[in-house]
């Protein structure tokens, strides 16, 4: 195959540079990546071979111009490898991972390039640059230093070797977890044992069993986190226990899938890498380049929240014990596998809300158009027009063109709502084209969810959780769409990890906002609005079970920190004992409230990008809760409020220090009180 015939290597002719997936075949990707890697290296070599002294233009801006072809290929590929990973795409992915790691290291550790960046950085005070350019110099210098570009050759060789080993270990962790999750899926002999599940869920379990050759039986597969959703419904205590035990045993047993040795080695190598880079621990290394700055700051925050969360969880357990005493013939102590089931009973008794019964009011198209889009139009004046003439990477991914109130084009929004075998679990946003004035590009962003396809002719009725997810992911999409930066390095969601969840969390505030809710939550057959009393009760349940939910999250966040606070010599032999000691240390060791992830299946941390960073979710929720208060104080859903949030926070992307951007928007630093109040931790 020649480069000339590879559609990935030419700029797309489609509007907004949307990749022309109709022309792209799976076997185009690897050759395109190889050509794009070479092209990127040539561009970098042209920068380092310049004979004149380093300047902002010939070095920093030139770096920003480089890698455009690689960005195009990578955006096109990673969109598909997450949302439509056919076996051919998976095969490309496996071959690509080490190539990508090597390419990234080659540029990040390039000594000649680093020298030029250092020279520009050293003259920064004397250069005539605007704020974004100045911050760009700071960031390039900081990121290359952080990656190890300033080390001597021996240290760099060791660093590169460590990065390779770590990437292999992460793959092993993921493979063990996937295998053990499949092995431990729980088989039930009769439907009686699964009493409480809906008929749809039962037939799905029966189909899953049949697919494994277990005709007549029922198979319950395990989600990533500890608590299985069906634990809230299953009436048989023994069935609940079996599912919970299987979930918590994942990749922990002394068998071929045991992740214990793998994660201990990962922790050790990360600590060694941190030491080479001049840090006491991996956590110190990671947080140094986040808004948190130090592991001590993270620890202070987690401890501040842990005590009231554990206290509230104990109070919640008392309520569960009371309902067990009341409803069961032989009372028993509430254990982890009982929590969700009796919590649903308390919820029903206290608020008479059956969350499942709300679905007829949450028809997907109505939620999207009259809820998600409507709120954005009210706040920012933007409108959404479906472009049925444009196809993205899959027929299920719909394309919308976004315009400002004055008709200016903003970008494209792609929504891929439904689940399919080739899509990974969860929900996310990713860019397909990043906004940049330098490159003359407008944004194309994608949202993915995993909503079950309805039967033929049936409407898609969402759960409240799915409505929340859609608003959340759309918040990330707005961050990408509203970017107005010059340099691609700063576009949209290219911000610190402990900041990136903030805009998406804020967008969730409109779900129950009266004008928005009233506009979208209409019964799909009768058009009736949700009963006001139900809405009131929904608002009242915000703090319900938050002691439990916050505790299980904080436990996982603390485990992540604990694994990464040690130095390279901190030998840890026993994973379970280490976990127990860490959780006891922070007072989150109630056996009825297990951690959201145990170490052996904590994929965010050992095979995903969240090592020493799982704290980020609650860290950014401080800003979120404080911002929600600001909107409330200033009249809520208005153009004026939206425009301020857009101009001072969403639009700047990563082009200034995020805490400066926050101060600019809020008029002061964030306060923690609104978060404590929201989660009921202030009482
Ligand atoms: Zn998010």
Map the helices and strands.
Layout: H1 26-48, H2 56-65, H3 68-83, H4 87-108, H5 111-122, H6 131-147, H7 153-183, E1 186-188, H8 199-211, E2 218-220, H9 237-249, H10 260-276, H11 282-288, H12 295-327, H13 339-351, H14 364-380, E3 383-386, E4 397-403, E5 409-418, E6 428-433, E7 444-451, H15 464-481, H16 497-507, H17 514-520, H18 532-540, H19 546-563, H20 575-585, H21 603-606, H22 616-633, H23 639-650, H24 658-666, H25 673-678
Helix pairs in contact: 1-2, 1-3, 1-4, 4-7, 5-6, 7-10, 12-13, 12-19, 14-15, 14-17, 14-23, 15-16, 16-22, 23-24
Bound molecules: zinc ion (ZN).
Structure description:
This protein is of the alpha+beta class and 683 residues long. It folds into 4 domains: 3-150, Orthogonal Bundle (Neurolysin, domain 3), CATH 1.10.1370; 172-179 and 251-352 and 545-683, Neurolysin, domain 3 (Orthogonal Bundle); 184-249, no CATH class; 359-543, Neurolysin, domain 3. It contains 25 helices and 7 strands. A 5-stranded mixed β-sheet has the order 3-4-5-7-6, sandwiched between helices. Strands 1-2 form a two-stranded antiparallel sheet. Helix 5 packs across helix 6 (131-147), helix 12 (295-327) runs antiparallel to helix 19 (546-563) and helix 14 (364-380) packs parallel to helix 15. It is globular, with a radius of gyration of 26 Å. The model has no long low-confidence stretch (mean pLDDT 94). The protein binds zinc ion (ZN).
């Amino acid at each position: 195959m020649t480069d000339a015939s590879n559609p990935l290597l030419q700029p797309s002719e489609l509007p907004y540079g949307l990749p022309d997936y109709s022309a792209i075949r799976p076997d185009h990707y690897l050759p395109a990546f190889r050509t794009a890697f070479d092209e990127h290296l040539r561009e970098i070599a042209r920068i380092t071979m310049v004979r004149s002294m380093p300047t902002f233009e010939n070095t920093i801006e030139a770096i920003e111009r480089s890698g455009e072809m690689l960005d195009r290929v990578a955006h096109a590929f990673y969109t598909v490898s997450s949302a439509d990973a056919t076996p051919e795409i998976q095969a490309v992915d496996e071959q690509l991972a080490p190539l990508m790691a090597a390419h990234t290291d080659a540029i990040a550790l390039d000594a000649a390039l680093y020298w030029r960046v250092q020279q520009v950085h050293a003259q920064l005070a004397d250069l005539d640059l605007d704020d974004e350019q100045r911050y760009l110099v700071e960031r390039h210098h900081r990121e290359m230093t952080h990656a190890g570009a300033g080390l001597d050759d021996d240290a760099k060789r060791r660093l590169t070797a460590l990065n390779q080993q770590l990437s292999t270990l992460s793959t092993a962790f993921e493979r063990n977890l996937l295998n053990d999750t499949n092995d431990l899926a729980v088989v039930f002999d009769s439907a009686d044992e699964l009493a409480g599940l809906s008929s749809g869920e039962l037939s799905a379990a029966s189909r899953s069993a049949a697919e494994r050759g277990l005709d007549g039986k029922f198979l319950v597969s395990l989600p990533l986190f500890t608590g299985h959703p069906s634990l809230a419904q299953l009436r048989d205590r023994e069935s609940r226990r079996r599912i919970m035990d299987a979930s918590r045993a994942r990749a922990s047993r002394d068998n071929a899938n045991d992740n214990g040795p793998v994660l201990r080695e990962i922790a050790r190598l990360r600590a060694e890498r941190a030491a080479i880079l001049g840090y006491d621990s991996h956590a110190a290394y990671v947080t140094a380049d986040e808004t948190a700055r130090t592991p001590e700051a993270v620890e202070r925050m987690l401890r501040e929240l842990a005590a009231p969360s554990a206290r509230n969880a104990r109070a919640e357990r008392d309520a569960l014990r009371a309902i067990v005493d009341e409803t069961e013939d032989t009372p028993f102590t509430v254990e982890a596998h009982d929590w969700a089931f009796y919590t649903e009973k308390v919820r029903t008794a206290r608020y008479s809300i059956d969350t499942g019964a709300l679905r007829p009011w949450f028809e997907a198209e109505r939620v999207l158009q009259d809820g998600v889009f409507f709120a954005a139009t009210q706040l920012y004046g933007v409108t959404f027009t479906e472009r049925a003439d444009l196809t993205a990477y899959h027929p299920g991914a719909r394309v919308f063109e976004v315009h400002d109130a004055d008709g200016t084009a903003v970008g494209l929004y792609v929504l891929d709502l439904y689940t399919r075998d080739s899509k990974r679990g969860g929900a996310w946003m990713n860019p397909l084209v990043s906004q940049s004035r330098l490159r003359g590009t407008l944004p194309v962003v994608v949202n993915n969810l995993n909503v079950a396809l309805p039967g033929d002719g049936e409407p898609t009725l969402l759960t409240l959780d799915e409505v929340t997810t859609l608003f959340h992911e759309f918040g990330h999409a707005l961050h990408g769409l509203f970017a107005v930066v010059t340099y691609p390095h700063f576009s949209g969601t290219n911000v610190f990890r402990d900041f990136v969840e903030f805009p998406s969390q804020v967008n969730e505030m409109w779900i129950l906002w009266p004008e928005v809710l009233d506009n979208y939550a209409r019964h799909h057959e009768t058009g009736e609005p949700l009963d006001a009393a139900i809405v009131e009760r929904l608002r009242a349940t915000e703090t319900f079970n938050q002691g439990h939910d916050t505790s299980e999250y904080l436990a996982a966040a603390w485990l992540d920190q604990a694994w990464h606070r040690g130095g390279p010599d901190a030998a840890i032999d026993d994973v379970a004992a280490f976990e127990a000691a860490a959780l006891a240390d922070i007072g989150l060791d109630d056996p009825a409230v297990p951690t959201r992830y145990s170490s052996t299946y904590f994929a965010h941390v050992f095979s995903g990008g969240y090592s020493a960073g799982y704290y980020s979710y609650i860290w950014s929720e401080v800003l979120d809760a404080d911002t929600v208060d600001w909107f409330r104080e200033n009249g809520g859903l208005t153009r004026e409020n939206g425009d301020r949030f857009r101009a001072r926070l969403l639009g700047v992307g990563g082009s200034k220090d995020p805490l400066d951007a926050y101060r600019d928007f809020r008029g002061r630093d964030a306060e923690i009180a609104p978060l404590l109040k929201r989660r009921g931790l202030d009482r």
